[in-house]
Amino acid sequence: MNPNDTTPPSADDALDALAGDYVLGTLSATTRREVEARMRREPALREAVEAWEERLHPLVALAEPVEPSPALWRRIDASVSAAAAPRRTASRTGWWSSLQLWRGLAGAGFAAAALMAAVLVTRIEPAPATQFIVVLVAPQDKAPGWVVQAAADARRLSLTPLGSITVPSDKSLQFWTKADGWRGPVSLGLVTPGQTLQVPLDKLPPLEPNQLFELTLEPANGSPLDRPTGPIQFIGRAVKVL
Amino acid sequence: MPATDPFDHDAALAACARGDRQALAQIYGLEGRYLLGVALRIVRQRQSAEDVLHDAFVSIWQRAGSFDPARGAGRGWIYSVVRHAALNWVRSHAREVPVDEEGQAALENEVALARHATQLDPAETRVDLGRLEACLERLEAERRECIVLAYLDGCSHGEIAQRTQKPLGTVKSWIQRGMRSLRECMA
């Protein structure tokens, strides 16, 4: 018998076991709903679930593929079209705000924000070599909150606030980045609201276009893990400016 | 489902979030048959499995904006949405466990299949499960079977006990210990 079998389970073990059972699929309908509700407000549980999803995901390759009937895609397409129409005018919260955000990043809103940021950046720091700009916007209303700027040759970047925000006293804002192809996000440190943060980049690869930056709400001393655990407060992707 | 597939699932999800229906069509075109395979194993009725896949794709479309590439791969996220849609369906429809002779024979075949699928003989393995494969191989065979029956076939503890002809408590503890070993092995 494994010696671990006799160790009394800690609260973390219980949480991890629940997350594992949720991903494995053995829980009842009621417990599944409870876990899904708790995941929305308990980052540690969500984190544990995500880790289990990643661990067990390769098993899906054991399921034999089954060709869907031709009618299925037409049904999906019709449902998606029907769902798409009201979304353009609705202003609900939830996933839709994120959709707004991404549409905004891709469209005119983002261009305007980037332009505004560019103007601002030249005022703050007239360095001509700024090569990457990231406007970090709030997921809810796309309001630009911070600007990240970096010169391609300089081995640091700056994170500049565009306004004042408040963070609960028992929380902190943590700055993260992840380029396409990286295994996970990298913490760039904790952020003080209202203050510019300078981040040395000597331990990171050079910035890439489309590299993701985000600020998440974390416990007072930052995320206990090597990745974000709290909700996204501001998010954006790097744009090369020349 | 080649491991080296160059399709960028993260980018396709970002495009969905921008309202690009073509990106959703691409995901479906590439993954639809594998996702239906995953859903059908759990739901076990063709029409219901297609219903589950329909709902899951609408959900993928609606939730694409909440997908955070910093927290995991897009492909895994898509499979999770489908698997959990299938699991929610099967748990809320309280699948009856067939107990007649024919049903029992079918179950035994399925257990045999699960056993076969998890023997993981390098010469016979059809797919590469990577690190997970090595860790599954280190588990005792019955623990491995229970985990695969749950994950792939959507079996509850009770169903696994019935299938493997083992007491419920034994099945629960096998799964618990198997999962703990997997976690340690993959840490």
From TrEMBL, chain A:
<dbReference type="InterPro" id="IPR018764">
    <property type="entry name" value="RskA_C"/>
</dbReference>
<keyword id="KW-1133">Transmembrane helix</keyword>
<keyword id="KW-0812">Transmembrane</keyword>
<feature type="domain" description="Anti-sigma K factor RskA C-terminal">
    <location>
        <begin position="110"/>
        <end position="232"/>
    </location>
</feature>
<protein>
    <recommendedName>
        <fullName>Regulator of SigK</fullName>
    </recommendedName>
</protein>
<dbReference type="InterPro" id="IPR041916">
    <property type="entry name" value="Anti_sigma_zinc_sf"/>
</dbReference>
<dbReference type="InterPro" id="IPR051474">
    <property type="entry name" value="Anti-sigma-K/W_factor"/>
</dbReference>
<dbReference type="Pfam" id="PF10099">
    <property type="entry name" value="RskA_C"/>
</dbReference>
<keyword id="KW-1003">Cell membrane</keyword>
<keyword id="KW-0472">Membrane</keyword>
